[in-house]
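Weekly structure sync, notes
Attendees: PL, DS, HV (note-taker this week)

Item 1: Protein kinase domain-containing protein
DS walked through the input record. Source organism listed as Gnathostoma spinigerum. Sequence as pasted into the shared doc:
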Amino acid sequence: MLYELLHICGQEKIESFQEHPLYGYFQKAKMIAFGASSDVYEIMFDEKRIVLKIVPVDVSPPHDESVFKIHDVISYVMIIKELSNCDSISGFEDFSGFPCIYDIRVVEGVYPEVLKSLRSRFSEKHRLFKESGYIPPVHQQYLLTVTAYAGVPLSDYWFTSVAQAFSIIYQIIFIFRWAEIKLKFEHRDLHARNILIDDDGSESITSEDQQIVLKTFGVRVSIVNLRCARIEKDCCCAFHDFSSDHAVMTLPIVGSVFERMWEITGNEWKSFHPATNLLWIGHIVEFVGERLNRLEVGRNIERKQFKEHFSSLEKSADLDLWLKASSVPDFLIEPIINDL
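Item 1 (cont.): predicted structure, written out as tokens:
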């Protein structure tokens, strides 16, 4: 299976950390995320902000928090390559909804000391205790992905208006709707840290068919962390099999969402279950609504209208039906101007 992974990554052999094109830039890296099975760094490269994600392959972190086995890595790579480099998967021009991939490869060796130091400081600062004395083997293999910088997590974003929150949810909906149509896509792990918000200053995005111009209020959405996702293309299906990953059910933050997802799928993960996307987007609507209240963004009536507008999401059969039944608010739409 290792050779299959190397083939998908476009490699003939495993490389070392020292052979990676970003190795000389590790000294200038900044750690931005610290997960159970991955480390994420921000690096300036050619005056461009990029993101390096390092995932250990076939390693059980302390206390068996998570295991990223090689067959899961293969599915993950297939999914991120298909989604991240798909032209306008969202159905909008110049807006794919997933960060562009610049490089992806498998390396082997000792985790670089400079990154290990960053990880330790990040862990102390945020009171995280992932390692617990765990020391990876000398010949540990890692998957390294380099993507475009796509902003800050939704969980940390400071909204400037309720209208902006509306646009963010609709951007997510359109990303998912088109990914469903093209690839029968499910994310299956859409919590607030897996949605990135970039203050790129854009005013709007235009659909490929020129039928809608959606106001963005200065922000663009990107969906990340596709480890648990599912896609289907040319009769081939890539997915994460939760039936052998029951540890997910113990997650305290979104445990109830996972439990409801289990009910929807019947613990059968290869099939396409679009209702899970509605479930997760509904979860995000609830999170955003609570954050708007906590930050006291806009008026009470506006925040109430936000939650009411999306209240029927989880009751719908799929996103396409919900969009047909629920009109996009006028304040989110720019008039279509046709050239004469």
